[in-house]
Structures are given as C-alpha cells and as structure tokens.
Amino acid sequence: MLYNLLLINSFCWPVFNPTLCVLFRSCTDIICCILFMLVLVGYMIVGILAWLYGDPRQVLYPRNSTGMFCGIGPNSDKPNVFYFDILKCATATNIMAAALNGLQCPTVQLCVNQCPSDFWVLPVTAYLPGALPQNFFKQEYCVPSLNLSTTALTVSQIKDKELCSYFYMPTAPVLGRCLPNFNNLNNAPSNFTIGGMNANQTISAIKNSTGDVLSGFNIKDIGVRIFEDFASSWQWILLGLVIAMLVSLLFLLLLRFIAAILVWVLIFGVLAVGGFGIWYCWNEYNTLKGSTVTFQDVGFTTNFNAYLQIKDTWLAFMIILCIVEGILLLTLIFLRTRILIAIAIIRESSKAVSYMMSTLFFPLVTFVLLLVCVSYWGITALYLATSGAPVFKVVALNASQGDCSGITGNQTCDPVTFNSSSYPTCPSARCMFINYNAEGLYQRNLFNLQIYNVVAFLWCINFVIALGQCTLAGAFASYYWAFSKPGDIPTFPLSQSFIRTLRYHVGSLAFGALILTLVQIVRIILEYLDHKFRAAQNPCARFVMCCLKCCFWCLEKFIKFINRNAYIMIAIYGKNFCVSAKNAFMLLMRNIVRVVVLDKVTDLLLFFGKLLVVGGVGVLAFYFFSGKIPVPSGSFQASKLNYYWMPIITVIVGSYLIAQGFFSVYSMCVDTLFLCFLEDLERHDGSVEKPYFMSKNLMKILHKKNKKPKGQKD
To answer: Which chain regions cross the lipid bilayer (predicted)?
Structure first.
C-alpha cells in the first residue's frame, strides 16, 4: 500500500506520509512570483513602446544627406549611399564633427543604384569657357534636383556647390555604403590627383579615411564565398551533426555497461602517465648525473631549455611527480568505496535516461525559450536605440568658400523646404541629417529603458535555465523514488514534472534566478568600471578591480551550484527556495567527500565523452572536407570549396553544442539521483516501514538491504 501511495503521490516522493505531502503541496515564493509577473508585464510594455516609437530602418538602411532611406520607398532601386568626397570622412574630427555628432561624413551623400567601378576625376578641360556640364558629370552622381541637360550653372559652380561629385573611384557596397575597394586602389592612373596631391598621396589619404571600416579585405566577397560553401555542403554538414548526435546518444547509453571500465581505465591511465613521468625524469637525471652545471651558473633567464640542462631540475620534477603519484594512490585506496558508489550512480543515471529518452531532447525546449528571450531582447534594444525623429541642421560643407561664420551648427532645418539662397554668403550651406531627437519624456528615459531591458533579459534567461533544470530533476527523481523500476515510474514523467513546476514553483525559480541576475549585474558594472580604469592606468585601482571581479566570478559560480541543487530539492519536496537551498547545502556538506568524488568522476567521464564526440567528428569532418576521403563522383567535390575550414568549424561547433546538450541532461540526472541517494540513506533504514529505494548494486556496495515483510519469502 505504501508503494502505491508513493506512486500516486507524484508531487513529493520521499516523505514519511505521502498523503500529507499531497495535502500540503502548494505554490511557493508567491511574492517573488508576483514580482516576476509584474516585471514581465513591464517588459512587454517596454517592447510595445519601443515598437511604437522605434524605427529599425535607421540601422538597417543608410540615409542620404536629406535623411531619406536608401533601398526602400522612393529609393527602392537605389540601395547604396555614395559619398561625393570620401576624403572628408577622414577629417571628421575637426569642428565639423561637432556639428555632425560623429554620425555623418561632412559631404553630400547620395542614393545610387550601383557603386562606381572605375577611376574618374574632373579634368582640367572642364574649366574652360563653354564647357558643358553634361559632357563631364554623370547624372547618377549628381543631386536629384540638378538636371545637367537644362542647368545654366557652369562646371565650376556645380563643383563648388557640391551638386555633383568631381571624382570617384572603384568602390564596393559595405553595409549599404560605397567604400573604396582596396583591391583596385593600387591601379589608380597617374592623373588621379585631388586637391593638389599626386596619385600616391590621394590613394594613401583614401585608405586612411576608410581603413578602419574595410580592414584591408572585401567583406561582401568573403561573405558570398562562405555562403556558397554552405550552399554546396549543407547536406554533409547536417550529416556530420547527425553523427555527433548518434555518437553522444550511444555513449550515454553504453555508460550503463562500460562506466566502471571507463572510470578505472581513466584513473589508471592518469597513474600510468604519472609513472611514465617519474621514469622519464629519473632517466634524464641519470643522463646528466656527471654534469656540474648548477642554478647559480645559469642564473635567471627566459630560455627555459637552459634549466633543462641542470640535473637538479629533473630531480625536482621527479620529487614533485612522486608526491603527486603517492597522493593519488592513497586517495584511490581510501576512497575506493566512494568511487564505486559514484560508478554505480553513473550507471543508474544511464539506466534512468534509457527509460526516459524524451529527456535527452528536452534541451531543445530550453533552447527555443532562450532563443525567444534573446530575440525579444535584441529586437527591443534595436527599436529603443532607433527611437526618435531625425534631426536636420544647417551645415557648411566647405567653410573656406565665402563667409560661413553665421552657421553655428545649431540651426535646424527641413530638407524638403531648405533653400541654400537663404545663406548667400556661404554657397556650401546644406541641410543635412545629424542624429535622432533625444527630447521628450520617452526619449530622455531611453537609457533607463535599455537598462530595464538588460535586467529583465538576464532574469528571463536565468529563469528559463532554472525551469529546465527543475523539470529534469522532477523527472529523474520520479525514477529514483519508484520502488519497482520500471513498473512504478509515472506515465509521462517529463510532462508531469514540467506542468508541476509551472503550477507550483514559478516563484521559487524566479527567486533563484533573481539572485543570480543581481550578481551578474554587479559583474557587468565591474567590467564597465574596469574598462574605464584601464585607460587611467592606475595600478592600485586595477588591482582592486581585478580582486573584485575574481570574487564576484567565484560568487556567481557558487550561486549557480546552490541554485542547481536547490531546484532539485524543490522538485522533490516542493518547498520554497530558501528552505530547499539550505537543505540541499547542508545535505551536501554532510557528505562532502562523496560530493567531491562523484563530481570529479562525472567530470572525467563527461570530458572524455565530449572529447570523443567533438574530436572524432571533427577529425572525420577534416578528412572529408579537405578531400582526403574519397566520395562517389558527382556527390561532392571538396576542391570546389572556397574555404574548406568553414564547414569543418561549423561541424565542430555544432558537435560540441549537441554533446553539451546531451551531457547536460546526463549531468542533471547524476546530480538528482545523487541527492535522492543521500536523502534515501538519511530518511530510511531498510525496514518494512522505511525501505531503501536505491538500486541493489548500491545496497550491495554499502552492505545494506531491505527487510522483507513477515511471511514473504526471499
């Protein structure tokens, strides 16, 4: 009857009275749950406001000098921005930069269909009397308001007023901006001279003005080639990821049978490596036994090989290795029982995963939720950053022409109605886009809203991770506390655990996630302050900052450890976060040696598994995509790949993420079963009233057994 009650009571297993457990199971940490819901509602309101006031086109599409977007609307057939005088972008640190706020180059910018592909500069003959502008300028590189066929302006007037570009060079579209193509700049003709500079000086000035953006290579060309590689090899990349998934799954399932062999092989492998190191050091010491060179003779040097010629160096290495080897042997002798327990729990975890295969794919749910959080944060941040109407101001593009002292850079204007004749003494006056309006209640609080966006994002991310951990813990705990396995395992344990967690423990998960979020916010602030202090070169401040960063990094790791075990206890008992965290911590402290042994043995096995999956699939991908593995003719040709390392890197990174997802479930299973095992030892004594729920293998290792009811035969 007791076992049936335990099975029915899927909300809380290892208790003395399962009926009372059902009655007292209730929502935990309600205040934090309400606070989390309010934050989510506020987060949605922020997103709505950002969507109403933001305009992501300000980031996705470039603007011309009049503030119109290129690539959409009236300029849908003109996706690129062409700079009349790209050299002025290099001098944007002068007084003009103050007016332009660093957002625009102080030159006319025009939406064009295609970026120029050749060199051209206004020839000297264009300044001769009677020269017609349409014979020298191209209409596509002139402002739309100027018609070269009907204009009465001379070539000099058009050039001085910057109505047409008086030179251009081969450029390539980079993020919608026509920037110089460095591959063709060195082929400039000798007559390509601008502003009194010769051709070499002109090219050097152009490179200086745009070098930070292009960094010496054509981004679009590389991107297109990489895309072509993915388009021709995506089926084989997918096959590599499928192989990684199958190898990960097979490894976890085989741990049920080979865990003991792997653990002992790895342990004795470490001892063998240590023994080989001792022998090698002794051999080198014996070889240099007749040498008279000492440390005093060598002194201090950065050449480490010089110390290897001293016999005392190898003697020191040998002594250190002997001490380490002795410690490992003593640890192995005295902790052999605990190692056997760790192996038994690992084997039991593999068995639990084999009974609940759906848990291996639950990280996909967590991944989708994390992707939703990241996408919402990114979109909200983008809309917040692009909130506000565009601001246009009167700017003198060439202050040396005429008297432009009346233009201070503060006069606002309308690009549609602006007329340069209003400034007769400054012919280069233009109405140009400067930045986005930062006035108004909403705009003045954009920074605060961005901070709210970051804080809510971190809280949501940590909550999603906590939800995944608690759900898996509930599913695996239902396996452990099933007295007769697999018959007593609840139906759909993963789904039941997920629903149960959302129904009762959202507040507790939000509480733990909030604590972790606060620590992460402090770490972000410290990183920001460290960036500021680094420029000041204050050794004392940097030392203090380094200590603080280290302390809070350790604190974050500790809180993650506490939260993880607290979520397991919440899944088992259904108590609030603080009580669960305290009980989990005290339980682990009472069994600290077992915790350390299990943690290290599990880490060793999972590291070996990741190395096997990532290394094996990575090597296979290298031999395949480099063309060293023959494939049927016509199916795939590695020689046609532009960058064969891109598919290899993709397969390696994807394999690691797949292995990490599978092994994270397994690690959670080990931690959950271990806590259940410790609770089982403390709560039960093997009597009929309090039987052990652990496997027979664990009871055999601990020399324990369950007593049979009277009258029941063995």
So the answer is: 6-24, 31-53, 234-254, 261-280, 314-335, 355-379, 456-483, 504-526, 566-589, 601-624, 644-666
> What residues pair up with 80 in beta bridges, in sequence order?
112
What DSSP string runs through 59-96? HHS-B-TTSPBSSSGGGTT--EEEES-GGGGTTTTSHH
Cβ atoms 516, 556 nearer than 8 A: yes
pLDDT at 138: 86
Residue 713 scores a pLDDT above 60 = no
Chain segment 411-462, per-residue pLDDT in tens: 777 766 777 667 777 766 777 766 666 665 666 778 888 899 999 999 999 9
Q: Are 525 and 49 in contact (CB under 8 A)?
A: no
Structure tokens at 153: 């302006």
**Contact status, residue 695 vs residue 352, Cβ threshold 8 Å:** no
Q: Strand (E) positions, 114-176? A: 120-121, 167-168, 171-174
Structure tokens at 477: 């705990």
DSSP string, 645-698: HHHHHHHHHHHHHHHHHHHHHHHHHHHHHHHHHHHHHHH--SSSSS---S-HHH
Preceding omega of 486 cis (within 30 degrees of 0): yes
Are 642 and 228 contacting, i.e. CB atoms less than 8 angstroms apart? yes
pLDDT of residue 509: 95
Cβ distance 57 to 72 under 8 Å?
Answer: yes
pTM as predicted: 0.74
DSSP string, 560-585: HHHHHHHHHHHHHH---HHHHHHHHH
pLDDT at 551 over 90: yes
Which range has the top average pLDDT, 31-35, 335-339, 413-417, 617-621? 31-35
Contact yes or no for 58/176 (Cβ under 8 A): no
Q: Name the pairing type of β-strands 390-396 and 429-436.
A: antiparallel
The two three-digit tokens of residue 79, written as one number: 């996706």
Q: Which of 72, 56, 42, 45 lies closest to 379, judged by CA?
A: 56
Could you tell me which of 681, 699, 678 has the C-alpha nearest to residue 565?
Answer: 678
Q: What is the pLDDT of residue 434?
A: 67
Average pLDDT over residues 233-257: 82
What distance in Å separates the CA atoms of residue 320 and residue 326, rounded to the nearest whole number?
A: 10
Mean pLDDT for the chain overall: 78
| pLDDT class of 17 with cuts at 50, 70, 90 | very low
Q: What are phi and psi of 7, to 5 degrees?
A: -70, -45
Contacts of 392 (CB under 8 A, 6+ apart): 66, 67, 412, 413, 414, 415, 418, 431, 432, 433, 434
The alpha-carbon radius of gyration of the chain (Å, integer) is: 35
pLDDT of residue 330: 87
pLDDT for res 190 = 64
pLDDT, residue 462, reads: 94
Closest CA to 597 of 256, 332, 269, 327: 332
Distance, CA of 493 to CA of 227 (rounded, Å): 43
Q: Which of 611, 658, 634, 640 is nearest to 238 (CA)?
A: 658
Give how far the C-alpha of residue 519 lies from the chain's centroid of Cα atoms, to the nearest Å. 19
Q: Please report, rounded to a whole number, the percentage of residues in the chain having pLDDT higher than 90.
A: 14
Question: Which phi and psi (to 5°) does residue 184 adopt?
Answer: -110, -5
What angle do helix axes 506-536 and 30-53 make, rounded to 10 degrees?
A: 60
The answer to whether residues 501 and 27 touch, using CB atoms and an 8 Å cutoff, is no
Beta bridge partners of 392: 433
Contact 366, 683 (CB under 8 A): no
Lowest mean pLDDT among 508-517, 672-681, 690-699: 690-699
Structure tokens at 693: 């729920």
Whether residue 238 has pLDDT greater than 80: yes
